[in-house]
Amino acid sequence: MKLIKDKIYIKIIFFGTALAGKTTSLQWLFDNIIPDKMKITDDITSIKTSFGQTLLFDFVPIQLGNNIILRMYTATGQDYYRSTRKMLFEEADGIFFIIDSQKEELEHNQEFVDEFKNYLSNIKGVKDADVIVIFNKHDLKEVYTPDYLKEKLGLKNYPYFKASAVTGENLKQAFIAMLEKVLSRLKEKGIA
Q1: Which H or E run includes 144?
Q2: Can you tell me whether residue 96 is helix, strand or coil?
Q3: Contact 10/68 with Cβ under 8 angstroms?
Q4: What's the CA gap between 68 and 136, in Å, rounded?
Q5: How confident is the model over 93-118, as pLDDT tens digits?
Q6: Among 12, 29, 64, 92, which residue is least crowded by beta carbons within 10 Å?
Q7: Boundaries of domain holding 89
């Protein structure tokens, strides 16, 4: 959380493998959950490749209150841009770890869990960030259950939601849970 003049800035990251559903999750929340009066921009700011994948990040700021601004980013999933992910994680207040629940993505998910654990110990402020795991793509067949994935990937210590970024299943609940966590920390610090 950054305090600049009279404003509090909260940083939330959507992290996960390429095509896990980070941008789709953020877009669904922006289109369906965020009231227009809280939107600082008309759309998500995106830098995309020619075939539609996030190149560096997606960004959307939300006005939560008179002095609280929530800044939400998606971290690119392409391995080529790993260094930009690392920079984006600095001073994150909350992390949505988006897991692609498709069976064929298990190994790729494990690589990102390993990267995430490295960030927890080596990037300023990340170990204090609130983490919520979203097991995405449960609108598809050939997916692992959240219980299997959280055990297999070593994510059992984090709250989680079984979700579909396409249909919006459980995204609202995950978003509310994250807001409750970060706003609770603000109150504990006597900031809000």
Answers
A1: none
A2: strand
A3: yes
A4: 29
A5: 999 999 999 999 999 999 999 999 99
A6: 64
A7: 2-187
Residue type, 182: V
Total domains in the fold of the chain: 1
CATH number of the domain bearing residue 23: 3.40.50.300
Q: Which of these, 4, 24, 56, lies nearest to 164 by C-alpha position?
A: 24
- State the pTM of this model: 0.90
- List pLDDT tens digits, range 72-99: 888 877 776 677 778 888 889 999 999 9
Tens of pLDDT, residue by residue over 173-192, are 999 999 999 999 888 877 76
Residue 192 lies in a domain: no
User: If you search the block for the tokens 């001073």, which residue do you land on?
Assistant: 91
Residue 132's CB: how many other CB atoms inside 10 A? 20
